[in-house]
Amino acid sequence: MSAGLELRGVTAVVGEPGTGKTSLCMRVAHEALLRGKRVLWVSLYEGKDQFLHEAAGLGYKLEGVEFWEAVMAEPEAFWNRLLEHVAEYRPDVLVLDSVTPLVEGADGRSLMLNALYRALRPSSIDVYMTVEAGSPPFIVYIADNVVRLFLERTREGVPERRMCIDKARGLPGGYCRDFDIISSAGLVFFDELKPAPGKPVEIATGTAVDDLVGGSFMGTTLLLGPVGSGKTRLAVKIAAAAAAKGYRVVYRSFAEEPWQIREMAKEFGGDFEVVAMRIRPPSYGTHIYEFYRLVNEAGPHLVVSDGFDVEFRIYGEKAFEMNLRMLSALKETGTAFIGTMAKSYGLANYVDNVLAMRRSEKGIAVEAIKSFRRPRRASCMLTEKLECA
User: Fold this and answer.
1) What is the pLDDT of residues 188-207, one digit of tens each?
2) What is the pLDDT of residue 1?
3) Could you give the maximum distance between any two Cα atoms of the chain, in Å?
4) Among 44, 16, 257, which residue's Cα sits nearest to residue 149?
5) Which among 106, 310, 166, 346 is positioned nearest to 227, based on CA atoms?
6) 10-191 and 202-382 share one CATH topology?
7) For the chain, which terminus, N or C, has the lower number of CB atoms within 10 Å?
8) Rounded alpha-carbon distances, angstroms, from residue 126 to 26, 142, 362
9) CA 93, CA 104: separation in Å to the nearest integer?
10) How far apart are CA 12 and CA 116, in angstroms?
11) Please, are residues 234 and 242 in contact by the beta-carbon 8 Å criterion?
12) Rounded CA separation 368/357 (Å)
């Protein structure tokens, strides 16, 4: 019905504490309100002020929800009062957060069954119930749809959230979707993050360095080399040349501060946007989301990620998956990409160009070990001004 889900009838949202059950239902409620639907939210454990505060922190405006803070009572009294609320408010969507304490006894389960299928279902109300994992399986059996939420952490502490559809009335089940809960953005499924398609952009620096990749920088390019090999200066030179010619450039710096990059850019007569990248294991989902937002909102012709191999040290194996997703997005938008790394962690197989850099007694040697425009390797020695000698 919403939140990327085409679920009708009674839906059980099952998961351990902290997996995102309430956040998912908040998104459902938010999207229902946007479509002009009436939403009744029943909470058995928090007040309206706290509810609205948490929703606002996720970017959801739920002031239009009819909120009932249900005082815990005998199950029979609760269900009778709920049906009175439903008859009075006539909602299109009903959220019960949470039904776990209501089904601990046989009487409670019987009352729930009667309420759901003799009163609510005939009214064509879509019901979302949050359920703690380990609750009586009765709820799963009677629900039309079962959504399970999982939260695991990698060895590096990166949270991995997953939603799996166990069953869905009239629809295929048995599939999962990765998501995260992001401040001001809410519950975001990664497969919803899509860039706006565009034509490929060519970035020419106007120097002999362009010849190494076949005339101009286009597509995705890695600058590989050890510390001190000149990767950052060359990346800044390319960015400055692009900015000087009117291209929109976003420079993502994972090591140096923005002022340091801007000072370096003055040498090459360019000025461009510099973003300081601060990454931590818990920020994995936010990191992905902010990248897509940057690409869609700033609309850059060139993105530079300087020293982004730090992602592999912070995010571990998740960094490879994340960067493949980002590289694919850049290719879809046509945005040129320059990335600097000490080693490629396997990404060299998935980019268009690879320039290997090393410092020797004669200067900095650059070799195009891969170029989609040049079938043969090309190399040169860079001068102090980063031009091919």
Assistant:
1) 999 999 999 999 999 998 88
2) 45
3) 86
4) 16
5) 310
6) yes
7) C
8) 14, 14, 73
9) 25
10) 12
11) no
12) 9
Which phi and psi (to 5°) does residue 33 adopt?
Answer: -60, -40
pLDDT at 96: 96
Token pair in block for residue 225: 């080399």
26: left (phi over 0), alpha (psi -120 to 50) or beta: alpha
DSSP 8-state symbol, 71? P
Spatial distance between the Cα atoms of 149 and 128, rounded to a whole number of angstroms: 14
Nearby residues of 124 by Cβ (< 8 Å), 6 or more positions away = none
> What's at 173, amino acid-wise?
G
Please report the DSSP string for 365-383 in residue order: EEEEEEESS-SS-EEEEE-
**At 251, is the secondary structure helix, strand, or coil?**
strand
Sheet hosting strand 336-341, strand order edge to edge: 273-276, 249-253, 302-306, 336-341, 220-224, 353-360, 363-371, 378-382
Distance CA 34, CA 52 (A): 16
CA distance 70 to 92: 19
Whether the Cβ atoms of residue 224 and residue 341 lie closer than 8 Å to each other: yes
Quote the Cα angle for 80-41-27, to 5°: 150
> Taking the domain 10-191, which CATH number applies?
3.40.50.300
Segments making up each domain of the chain, as ranges = 10-191, 202-382
pLDDT < 70 regions, the chain: 1-4, 73
Rounded CA gap, 109 and 99, in Å? 10
Inter-residue contact 239 to 302 (CB < 8 Å): yes
pLDDT in tens, 55-102: 999 999 999 999 999 877 678 888 889 999 999 999 999 999 989 888
